[in-house]
């Protein structure tokens, strides 16, 4: 689960006491080394915190509310607090959980809609599992089995065209068919060596509800262009 970086939050809180209005931000005076280093810490960490908040699921963060909460907390004005610390922590946790569930469901629905439309197009073949593929070049070699190792070139993209991984421009990748996601294990067994196919892999045959890294979100349908160069013999 994504969490707000507490270090960035603390740095912004330290700055927020003096930046509760646009004028105070613009007119910050740097009369001493302490003033300058204070400003530098606030600026650097503020930019970092801004990037960190861009990963927050749901609507964009309300910056005014964020700064107000930090300033109130830092000043220790307990009478002005709108919730207890325990309530705040629970609210953050619940918000993140609910927002991520909604985001994952939206991603799943987008993938299902795409696959339903894609399977009606000319040249698209859908297997019983839901894997879809299109033949770009049909090779003449053998088809690999689950016990085989293969050498491939590939490019993986999201449905919006974002490339998240590729071997193009580097050495081909060699692996066993049981060492990859189920969509690859199934798809490669359809390909004769020397072939190039495009695969559209439903989320349950890819990384499912867990996703992978920062780019592949939970429930993502993925597209791979795969060239099966050879079956690697021991």
């Amino acid at each position: 689960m994504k969490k707000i970086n507490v270090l960035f939050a603390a740095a912004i809180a330290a700055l927020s006491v003096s930046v509760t209005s646009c004028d105070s931000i613009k007119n910050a005076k740097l009369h001493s080394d302490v003033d300058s280093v204070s400003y530098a810490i606030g600026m650097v960490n503020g930019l970092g915190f801004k990037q960190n908040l861009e990963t927050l699921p749901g609507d964009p963060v309300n910056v005014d509310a964020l700064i107000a909460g930090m300033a109130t907390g830092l000043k220790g004005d307990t009478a002005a607090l709108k919730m207890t610390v325990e309530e705040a922590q629970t609210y953050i946790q619940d918000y993140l959980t609910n927002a991520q569930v909604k985001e994952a469901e939206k991603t799943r629905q987008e993938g299902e809609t795409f696959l339903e439309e894609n399977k009606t197009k000319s040249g698209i073949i859908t297997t019983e599992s839901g894997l879809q593929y299109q033949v770009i070049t049909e090779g003449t070699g053998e088809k690999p089995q689950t016990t085989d190792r293969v050498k491939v070139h590939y490019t993986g993209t999201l449905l919006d065209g974002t490339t998240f991984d590729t071997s193009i421009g580097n050495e081909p990748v060699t692996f066993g068919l049981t060492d990859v996601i189920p969509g690859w294990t199934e798809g490669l067994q359809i390909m004769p060596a020397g072939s190039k196919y495009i695969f559209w892999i439903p989320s349950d045959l890819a990384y499912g509800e867990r996703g992978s890294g920062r780019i592949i979100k939970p429930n993502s349908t993925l597209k791979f262009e795969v060239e099966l160069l050879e079956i690697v013999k021991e």
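Residues 85-118 form the longest helix (34 residues). The first strand starts at residue 125 and ends at 126.
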